[in-house]
Every structure is written in C-alpha cells, then in structure tokens.
Amino acid sequence: MRLLQQISITLMLIISASTYGDEKVEPTYQGKPVDFWVKRLESDDAKERELAMKAVEAFHKDAAPAVPILLRWLNDRCDEYRHFAADRLRDIGPGAKDHLPDLIAQLKNPDYYVRTRIMWTLEAIGPDAKAAVSPLHVIFFKEKEQKLRAGALDAIAAIDPENADVRATVLGYLQRGPAAVARWEPILKYLQKAGPSAKAAIPSLEKALGSSSYDDKQICITLGRIGEAAVPALLRLSKDKSPELRGRAMKGFAEMGPSAKSLVPALEQMLLDEEPDVGIEAARALWIIDKDEKAMAFFVDRLEADYKIATKPSPAEGDPKGRTWAGIRAMNIAHYLSYIGPEAKSALPALKKWCGLKENPDENYLNFIKDAIEKIENKSEDK
After folding, report:
1. Looking at residue 127, what DSSP letter applies?
2. Residue 30 phi/psi, 5° resolution?
3. What's 284's DSSP letter?
C-alpha cells in the first residue's frame, strides 16, 4: 500500500513539473504585467505616464495590448509621443496585424519619421499585410523622396514579392538603364525576394554589371535567386576577363543551391582558374550545391599553398604584399569552413599550421582561422 502511495505521489510530481514546464511565463516589468502598464500610458500623472512608456518599450514585441493607444498617439501634436508610438509599433510588428487598416492609413501621416516606421511595421508583419501592397505600390511609384520609395519596396518584398503590378513597375524602372539598378539597393533586394518570377529582369541586370564591387555582388546574388533562367547569364559572366566578375558569378551559382547540380562539371573547371580567389568561390559554390569532395580538396590545397607563401623567409623569395594576399585568402577559406563545420575535418591540419605562423601579416586572419577550428572541432564533438 505504501509503495502504491509513493508511486502515486511520484506521478503527481512528474505531471505537475511537466505542466509547469509547458506553462508560458507572463512577462513583467518591475513585477507588473503589460496590461498594468498599458492602462497607465494615459495617466494624468506625467511621471506615471513616463514610467509606463519605459515599461512598454521594455516589453518590445509583447506590448501588443498597447497598439490602440499607440495608433492614437501617431497623430499627437507632440513629436516625442508620435515617434515613441511609431518605434513601439515597429517593435511589436506582427502583434499589430489585427489593426492593419489603421496602420495603412498612417502611410499618409505627414510626419516622415512615422511613415518610415509604419513601413517597417508592415514589413515585419509580412504576408498578413497584403492589403497594404497597393498603397505601398503607390508610394514606390509616385513618391519623390527616395528613402520612402525604398522603404515601400522593402515592405512589399516582405509582404508579396510576386505581386504582378509591382513587378511590372520594377521592370519598367530597370529599363531606364544600368544606373537604376546599380544605385538603388532596394530594387535588388526586391528582385531577390521575387526569385524566379523576376526572370524578365535578367537582361537589365546583366547590363548593370561592372558598376561597382558591392553592386556586382548583389546583382549576381539576385541572378542566383532568380534561378535556372539566369544560368546562361552567369555562365557568360564566369568567362569574363575580370577575375572579380568571375568570382561574383560563382556567388550567383552558390545561391542556386542543390538545384544547380547540372553545373557541377563547369564549376569544377572553375577550380582551375588562374586567379585563386575565383577558385575559392567556385569551391564554395560546389560545396553548397553538391558537397563536392573536390571543393574540400581545393580548400586544403589552397591553405597549404598560401601557408608556403606566408612563410617565405625573405621579401626576395616572397614579397610582403604576396604574404598579405595569402593571409586574406586563408581568412576567406576559414570563414567558409566555419559554416561547413564538422564535415571540414580534413582541413584541420592545414588550418592548424596557420596557427603556428610567427610572422602573420594580420592578427585578424588568425582569429578567423582559430574560429573555424573551434567550430569544426566543437561540432564534431557534439555529434
């Protein structure tokens, strides 16, 4: 009988513990829940109201019960109250989706600060804010202030990147010439989100290449996100006389992931490129697409070769600039290997050689290498 009682008590404790463990703990500020502080946002006592504002800010995304008051404050004559409300709505994000009509109405708020934060709020809400796409499209199409147009397009990219009307407007914008793409990052961000549905943008994107290093990278990433339709453009780019553009093409292929397995032979050829940096990007793409062992072998061989360059005893045998570039390449490879993790164990001996280098061009390179070793070994142990 006593044994049955003990078993019964034990089971009750287990059930209680599991119930408590599953129970969501209500967030508090100074020991009080969010509703307590929301009521005090409209207190006649200025100090109490100020403390309530600090509390609502601390609740961040959990401050959704404050949304009705915050929406009213967006039209307050006091800048401090308007901007506080706009910032908190941005923090709350998806928690404000039940008030979508009121949020959309605030896109016409005369306060520039409020309008930008409302766009960020709609962006955070995402697909549930589809009713906002039409007014955001109008802002993108007609607004003269470029930052507002950029904010509108960023929001649309998060809400409904495949919207046909918006896509037509963007494609029309691209037809103005390369500068329209190269000078405006939100266009590229939008096209990256639109993916295969943006294939009509490929000719304009190709024309825009060569404008700047940053934009070339983003354009190639965009082509990669568009996918199969962009393969011919990226293959053409992989044969460009500029090694930088050839490397960018590899980044585009990497964005395609496993769906680009048919490109493995071409990428394996790119490992032989005369510019080592192009080979490094080709190896990264090969690993992402197919976990190709040739990619890992390339990383190891390149680390070994650059280690030899970095340890040349005198400038006559290896100039300091050559050592610097060897260090940069080792850093980039280590960065990629750190994401691969335990599967990069075969690269550990080559990485560890670099840790013993006495005349390293820059300590930062070693930090990347040590980080890669740690991630590879720690993840290996976890498994």
Report:
1. G
2. 55, 40
3. H
Q: Of 67, 134, 137, 131, which is closest to residue 95 (Cα–Cα)?
A: 67
Report whether pLDDT(185) > 90. no
**Please, which pLDDT band fits residue 5 given cuts at 50, 70 and 90?**
very low
Out of 84, 100, 126, pick the residue that ends a domain.
126
The answer to whether the beta carbons of residues 193 and 154 sit under 8 Å apart is no
In eight-state DSSP terms, residue 312 is -
Question: Encoding tokens for residue 208?
Answer: 């825009």
pLDDT of residue 175: 82
pLDDT digits (tens, 9 = 90+) for 46-103: 999 999 999 999 999 999 999 999 999 999 999 999 999 999 999 999 999 999 999 9
Please state, in angstroms and rounded to a whole number, the distance separating the CA atoms of residues 231 and 174: 20
Q: How many domains does the chain have?
A: 2
Residue 313 belongs to some domain of the structure: yes
Whether 148 contacts 107, CB under 8 Å: no
| Interior angle at CA 353, CA 356 and CA 314, nearest 5 | 70
Q: Please check whether residue 298 is in contact with residue 283, taking contact to mean a CB–CB distance below 8 angstroms.
A: yes
Q: E strand or H helix at 33, and its extent?
A: strand 32-33
CA distance 48 to 41: 8
Instruction: From 32, 52, 31, 54, select the one nearest 43 (Cα to Cα).
Output: 52
Q: What is the predicted pLDDT for the residue at 42?
A: 94
The reply to whether 329 falls in a domain is yes
SS3 359: coil
Residues spanned by the domain of 336: 292-383
Residue with tokens 């709020």: 121
